[in-house]
Amino acid sequence: MTDTEPNPETDGGVDADAGVDEAADVEQVTSVSIADPELSDDAVRRVQAVLEDGRLADGPEVRAFEEEFAAYCGTDDAVATSNGTTALHAALEAIGLEEGDAVITSPFSFVASANAIRLAGGKPVFADVDPETYTLDPADVERVLAEREDIVGIVPVHLYGLAADMPALCEIADEHDLFVVEDACQAHGATVDGTRVGGFGDAACFSFYPTKNMTTGEGGMIVTDRDDVAERAASYVNHGRDVSGTGGYDHVDLGHNFRMTSIAAAIGRVQLEQLSAFNRARRQTADFYDDRLADLPLETPTEPTGYRHVYHQYTVRTEDRDALEATLAERDVGTGVYYDTPIHHQPAYETISTAAARLPAAERAADEVLSLPVHPNLSERDSRTVVEAVRDHFTTQ
């Protein structure tokens, strides 16, 4: 079982030079990938045990993973799902989102955060993001609320491994009697003032896609302190079955098959045990980059006071983004642009009421952000290769 209390003293602030091999500079490097999921021998053994047991679908392994993940987040309950999108969808259904309800969310995110609102019958309403953190700007949320009277909730997105401004957003939600569902799909273990994401809203949702800070292959999780939300979510992901009794074929409401498999849960339990180590490795690489890219004409990630970033992505920004991306590709360094089209400009959102909104911070970010490799399997040589490629791009212009 992994630790349940965040420890900024041991989980962050790593010396950027720790363990760096100076001789690595001269070694041949063929490729540095943007992501490299790691499955340990223990995970393989756990999966083998599930295969031998024969209970491959939703079962005891899933219940154990739910309990352990809730403990990690510091919440009372957790409900496992088939992926992060189904977690968001089921959480919104469990909250009681009704047809036509308007929900504020970020335009600068993977499309699933807004899609889930629509799939649950709601209307996404976009507020702009903070230009430094890329997460929902509380001031712009206030602007939207001053203009509309139909908002019932907020879905803030914790982006790139950094939490949104949850103290401010929760205060706004309390003032306006709004629900809050955290999209924590990119922020496993991130904290604000010592509280892990997942512990702020009415519910929070995580993804265990292979590139995330921890993985189950595909999978998701809803965490909550509300018993009613946990019960409704557990029913919704299991065909609307009655979860208060023996189960069986008593379907008390409409639902989906959004269940997690026991195989995925077995992997997830091992990954959860490793999550703190994975996050420390990501932070060490981020410190290394911060130190060696600080003098260049590009913005490196911010970590506001009281926040602990877990670097799902190490995202820089520069007006020279496309040229930098091309240079790194020539040096066999993988990169990613997350995201080059804000959601309100996506073709699928042309008919949404706020599709034509002007959201300058999100739109500018989409033109300028570039993510560099930061996964835990980066070697010292890999990290130096990334730094040298970025530095060479700017110093040879």
From TrEMBL:
SUPFAM superfamilies: PLP-dependent transferases. InterPro entries: DegT/StrS_aminotransferase, PyrdxlP-dep_Trfase, PyrdxlP-dep_Trfase_major, PyrdxlP-dep_Trfase_small. CDD domains: AHBA_syn. Residues 1-25 have a biased composition (Acidic residues). Belongs to the DegT/DnrJ/EryC1 family. GO terms for biological process: polysaccharide biosynthetic process. This is dTDP-4-amino-4,6-dideoxygalactose transaminase. Gene3D superfamilies: Aspartate Aminotransferase, domain 1, Type I PLP-dependent aspartate aminotransferase-like (Major domain). Residues 1-37 are annotated as: Disordered. One of its GO terms (molecular function) is transaminase activity. Signal peptide: none annotated. Keywords: Pyridoxal phosphate. PANTHER family: DTDP-4-AMINO-4,6-DIDEOXYGALACTOSE TRANSAMINASE, TRANSAMINASE.
